[in-house]
Write a structure and sequence with these properties.
Rossmann fold, 5-stranded parallel beta sheet, 14% strand
């Protein structure tokens, strides 16, 4: 099943090549909150020679990216990459996220720590944070990095409630979502709740990457 999001106002101004260097301007990246460290990421500068036991998954990710770049309609499912620290999950996922901007009139990149802060602030009736939270719910393309990381015991119940609401809204409106995590499904169920993780399985195709850290082995991502 696929969905048409119509013409993308972001892509119309700033076209992007999946296999080449990014060509969006900093103003656009600032608007979607993409960190500077991820703005030059592409498939071309990902080191596939490390952890080549993931070749089958890498091939699926590259093929998914090619479809993102060439198809006229967006896929109904995003990608959820799980695995240990430093093995290139954020590099690969952010490349897909940037490519998906061609379908997006609005997009948002957010880490779990920042998303948890937004959720806590929403509960304290902060107007700015409420708008950020609504953007996460409503934007055409969303990427959540380090899902489940840094959720404190004090805010766990609140985060679970809002994460379920967030995922439910994105499923209902069929919004494209990408995620990464260093945690197992079991840990995520404990931190974010089984209902939330069940919703994520509806909205994303999960892939587990294994191997050595690029950082420890002198590789690059």
């Amino acid at each position: 099943m696929t969905i048409s999001y119509g013409k993308s106002s972001l892509h119309a101004k700033f076209p992007f090549g999946y296999l080449g260097a990014t060509s969006y301007c900093d103003e656009t990246y600032d608007f979607i909150s993409l960190p500077y460290s991820l703005r030059a990421k592409s498939i071309l500068n990902f080191d596939f020679s490390i952890n080549n036991e993931n070749k089958e998954i890498y091939d699926k990710i590259v093929e998914y990216g090619r479809h993102l770049e060439s198809d006229d309609i967006a896929p109904s499912h995003g990608i959820f990459l799980l695995g240990d620290v430093g093995i290139g999950k954020t590099h690969l996922c952010s490349t897909l996220f940037i490519t998906a901007l061609r379908f997006a009139d609005n997009a948002k990149f957010v880490g779990q720590v920042e998303l948890s802060r937004i959720i806590r602030s929403v509960n304290s009736f902060s107007g700015g944070s409420k708008k950020e939270y609504e953007t996460c719910m409503e934007c055409t393309v969303l990427m959540i990095d380090d899902l489940g990381y840094g959720v404190s015991s004090q805010s766990k119940e609140l985060v679970q409630e809002h994460m379920f609401e967030l995922m439910n809204a994105r499923i209902s409106d069929r919004k494209l979502t990408f995620m990464t995590t260093n945690l197992s499904f079991e840990s995520l169920e404990e931190i974010l709740g089984i209902p939330t993780i069940d919703r994520i399985s509806e909205i994303c195709q999960a892939m587990v990457i294994t191997g050595k850290s690029f950082r420890k082995n002198g590789g690059r991502t």
